[in-house]
Amino acid sequence: MALVTNGNSIKDILDMIDGLKEDAVAAQEVLVDIDLPSLRQIASGVIDRLGGSLQFVFAVDERPGSDGFSLHHVFGISARHCFLHVRSEVPTGSLEFPSLTPILPSANWHERKIADMHGLIPVDHPDPRRLVLHEDWPDGLSPLNYDFDASRPVPRVAGEYMFQRIEGEGIFEIPVGPVHAGIIEPGHFRFSSIGEKILYLELRLFYKYRGVERYLQGKSLLGGVLAAERISGDETVANAVAYCQAVERIAGIDIPERAKRLRAVLQELERIHCHLADIAGAATDVAFSAGAAKAAILRERVMAINETVSGSRFLRGVIVHGGLRRDIDNGASRGLLDFADASRNALNELKSSIFDRSSVLDRFERTGALSKSNAVDLAVVGPVARASGIPTDARIDYPYGFYELYPLEIAVRNDGDVAARVRIKFDEIERSLQIIEDALCDIQSGDICAKDTSLPSSGHGLGWAEAPRGLTLCWVEIGDDGRIVNCRWRTPSFNNWPALPYALEGDIVPDFPLVNKSFNLSYAGNDL
Amino acid sequence: MLKYRRICSPKPTIKNLDTLQEPTMAQWMPGLIGACCADCAHCRDICPTGAIAKDQSGELEFNYGSCIACRVCIDNCPSKALVALPSIYAATSRDDLSRTYVAGGRGSDTAEKEDHQPKGKSRAIKIFAKSMHVREVDCGSCNACELEIAATGNPIYDAERLGIHIVASPRHADALFVTGPVTRQMELALRKTDAATPTPKLIVAVGSCACSGGLFGNTSVAGAGVDQFVGIDLYIPGCPPSPQAILKNIIKLRG
């Protein structure tokens, strides 16, 4: 359960966090109630003095039961292995809250999303345009507010999205999407370029906005798992684990050791197939089809293993709050160990076939470099952050499940370019194979699901996991009837998308697909 | 003179697709096979997409277009009457995606051996029997369907050898593979892509979201399936349908 406290100065919070020490590992979520006016001061204090990063901002419509809206800022404090959850109330009758974007650029999209979803106004936000809802959405309809009827069609109105315009002699715009050339998800990219050089890239996403958070309201806990599995196909396990851990933390459920280990195995299998798809994509984008074919064959082997282990190529239908819905039998475990053993050679061969080739390196190196300072400012997560020299990984920073006691060494590189990101992915696949072996080698038979999964009372809490793309976070609120009242999601792609244009500075338009692929961003997870 | 015939592979059949990779169980869609159903309504209550219903004549109707293969009904059936079907149901009309079983009765003793044969709809389908250029349009899927469509082109399934080629523009396409429930913000792009695709054309709904709206569909921001917006020639349900299921049904449809 979260530790709850009041505090209105950064000193209170610092004192409290200092007082936590080892306790923080057990709590991992520290909830602080503050007054809205002190938000900026506290936020900058948390960043400067605790080394925190703003990971998640969301609002909750507390009407009609209570007054107004509550505002939640979640800071990751990796040095203390905990999340600081700062809660404030938007005063009744007011729809305004102070924007943190001028001091914390990572708040940008979060605040614009809150403005769209709830009709709240981030005061002093440098870019108050809409984010999630497109221009044909009528003003005044806020899809996450209680008075919005999600079953009725919303009329379309005339409107125009104002792209940032870069003007000058020889500058032209290239619009791309939302339907792209490859088999990828929809999004619109507007390049302002001079010759082939990209001057500016503007992202226009959220074509896939499905209303996941709205859908989850009032759903059963199991319904929440099924929805979490379908937020983003290649993050099925990670999102399900994040959601289930939130529920387990609220209910105080301790899952059996076997389930912890098998969840780790499933998460690593997912990481492997996601990274391999990515490596295949990067090889395709530099026209190295032989390497792409090798990676695709290896990935297909993982998908086949997934199907043997779980019945689903995307490992769906296995994870549930309390543990697992189905066991991995000994035969499948042995198959997994054989697979892990046999994959190493294939992986090394693939790695050398890609990195021993000057035509590939010529495209990979110094392309799409994301500087460490930009990555820090935008609170970038996952392999993208690790390739830019930030040693962040939820499995170490905020350890959970099997990883709590596992001596994981994460791969970090400093170049920040496509080559670094692809190398990181190879390193991580190797480690994932090792984790699978370590988790399975001395696994004991036993229960796979906690016996008592009933909820003692209503409550709310954060859940997280390290998805293949980085830290995925969700916040779940459960009501007295044992159903979901509210659920908010922040998948790693939501943090990483805004960093993409910065990585492209100075690159040429034909490099965009490659850089985009090396970031490996999920549109579905971002758009929700 | 070169002998091209030797170079080309023999006409691909469904049989040699089956030998590629044996799935353990097709798509995890539930059905009543062999066991006795107690007619307890548990499956109907628990289904997250309402894919199981009871019609007026008292028969249990399974709508595979809505099924997201979550296996919750199979896992929770008190009389263990529900099992995963070994076949993949695809159809040329949405109604054909449903199957009925006698509630409270005993299911058929054997699963249908052959997959449901989608009926050929028009002359257009025959035109693409040997070569079909495909454009994929994602209208709000979770990206699993995209990954599986992309996987049809990998060296294991190798859709190119079947004449199925992914193209970059709808202008070059004979067929559109559409995924997702069609979100409000993708509707216009879908309509434009459809209009940009020259006729004759095939439009295939890939995945349960595209067939019926799936889990997140049928709200103010997401539609209830692709056929609300454009005409569909083939529905391939699944969450997601495997690359094998996609290819098999395309080959069957075009003959």
From TrEMBL, chain A:
A molecular function GO annotation: oxidoreductase activity, acting on NAD(P)H
Chain ranges of the NADH:ubiquinone oxidoreductase 30kDa subunit domain: 52-152
Highest taxon above the source species: Bacteria
Membrane-spanning residues: none
Pfam families for the chain: Complex1_30kDa, Complex1_49kDa
The UniProt record lists the keyword NAD: yes
Domain NADH-quinone oxidoreductase subunit D: 295-454
Alphabetically ordered keywords of this record: NAD, Oxidoreductase
DNA-binding found in the keyword field: no
InterPro entries: ComplexI_49kDa-like, NADH_Q_OxRdtase_suD, NADH_quin_OxRdtase_su_C/D-like, NADH_UbQ_OxRdtase_30kDa_su, NiFe-Hase_large
PANTHER family registered for this protein in UniProt: FORMATE HYDROGENLYASE SUBUNIT 5-RELATED, HYDROGENASE-4 COMPONENT G
Protein name as it appears in the record: Hydrogenase large subunit
